[in-house]
User: Fold Vitronectin from Hypotaenidia okinawae.
Amino acid sequence: LIDAAFTRINCQGKTYLFKGSQYWRFDDGVLDSGYPRDIAEGFEGIPNNVDAAFALPAHSFHGNERVYFFKDKYYWSYDFAQQPTQADCQKSSPSAVFNHYAFMNRDSWEDIFHILFGGRMTGASSARYISRDWKGVPSNLDAAMAGRIYVASHQPRRRKSRRQRKKYKTHRSPNLGFWRWLQNGSDSEGVESDWLSGSQCKTLQSVYFFVGDKYYRVNLRTKHVDLVQPRYPRSISQYWLDCPQPEEERT
Assistant:
């Protein structure tokens, strides 16, 4: 059995498998030449025998892709130093979705300084405690997975007259269903969201952590386990495999 796996979220989409002190890299299911390699060689600062890992896309064309690794009660973040450029991706497989995603997030001041002066930190961070930064997530994970990215309206509110407020009640936001999905904590039903303009939107994403026969859903922005009913951890078999709930748990 492998220890952890993730796929880089870019136009190349290479998949990495980790086991023991080595890792393998695949391109569309085909093993790249020169693999397996030692983790210490390709991911300096990341320990052997990791428990789980998940990857996140670069937040802009000038940002860095990031991977989180988990082992025992610690975690590490790893920022890739090399990744496909915008020109590389446009040659291979242009992505309208990522173009819009990058436009919504825009370039941060960190990106601007990097463009002007260079020198952004890449590679592995130091080990940090899971319990300190990922509130509610246990140690000794079995697996982790990043969920789909959703887009929610982020418009400033204006004061309205009583008549306007009454009218507003009958015209709810088109994203109301999405917020209900977050509150209910539904993990088995798909949700469609509109791709709105960059100045009016923000991206939202969850991460799923699996331990034994239970799982947790974490808000990636806050790094807190979502507070919903029923509470987390939840049964993997019930919510992911749609298995019938045991009678003793219903009462």
Summary: DSSP finds nine helices and 15 strands in the chain.
